Amino acid sequence: MAVQGPFKVAFGDVFPFGAFIKGGVEAVRDFDRSTKENFVQGRDKDTGELVWSVEVLDADPDSKGTFKVKLMAPVQPIPPEAPNGFPFIPVEFDDLRVTPYVNSQTNRLAYSLKASAMRGPGGAKGAGRPAATAAKDAA
C-alpha cells in the first residue's frame, strides 16, 4: 500500500472553520520509560524531537468536544497570543499529519493529529515558535 503511517494534510482540509487552543502546551509522557516517580517526556519515533500537546477546539459548529494535537519540537512551543477578552487562542498548524486508527474502547475509526509547529491565523509573527527562537528574535 502506498500510504503508510501518518499522511500530510492541509490545515484548511481538517479545520475548514478554523481551530482554537484551549489551555497551554504540555509535555507528553513516555508511558514506557516513565515511572510513577520519574516523568520522561516522549519523543517522536520518526524525528526524535520532543513531543508536546495542545487541547484544540474545532470551530466547526457540528464538532463535538475537544481533542489533542501533538507538536514535535526541541523546546516547548509558544502559543500565539489570545485576542483581548477572548478565552481561546485562534491557531493554525504547520506540517499537519493525520494517523487513522481504531479506538479500542469504541471500535470506531479515530484520528491522531500531529504537527511541526503552530502559529496564529495568517502566520502572526513569533507565534508558535520555540521559546529560544522567539527570545533570540526579540533581542
Please describe what this structure looks like.
The protein is mainly beta and 139 residues long. The chain has one domain. Helix content is 9%, strand content 35%. The protein has two helices and nine strands; from the N terminus they run E-H-E-E-E-E-E-E-E-E-H. It has helices at residues 11-14, 131-138, and strands at 7-8, 19-21, 26-27, 50-58, 66-73, 89-94, 97-103, 108-115, 117-119. Strands 1, 2, 3, 4, 5, 6, 7, 8 and 9 form a nine-stranded mixed beta sheet that branches. Residues 125-139 have low confidence and may be disordered.
Briefly say what this structure is:
This protein is mainly β.
Helices and strands in order, then pairings?
Layout (H helix, E strand, L loop, with lengths): L6 E2 L2 H4 L4 E3 L4 E2 L22 E9 L7 E8 L15 E6 L2 E7 L4 E8 L1 E3 L11 H8 L1
Parallel strand pairs: 5-8
Antiparallel strand pairs: 1-7, 2-4, 2-6, 3-4, 4-5, 6-9, 7-8
Uncertain residue ranges: 125-139
Count of distinct strands: 9
Order of helices and strands: EHEEEEEEEEH
Domain module count: 1
The value of Rg in angstroms is 16 Å
- The share of residues in extended strands comes to 25-35%
Shape: globular
Mean pLDDT over all positions: 86
* Total helical segments: 2
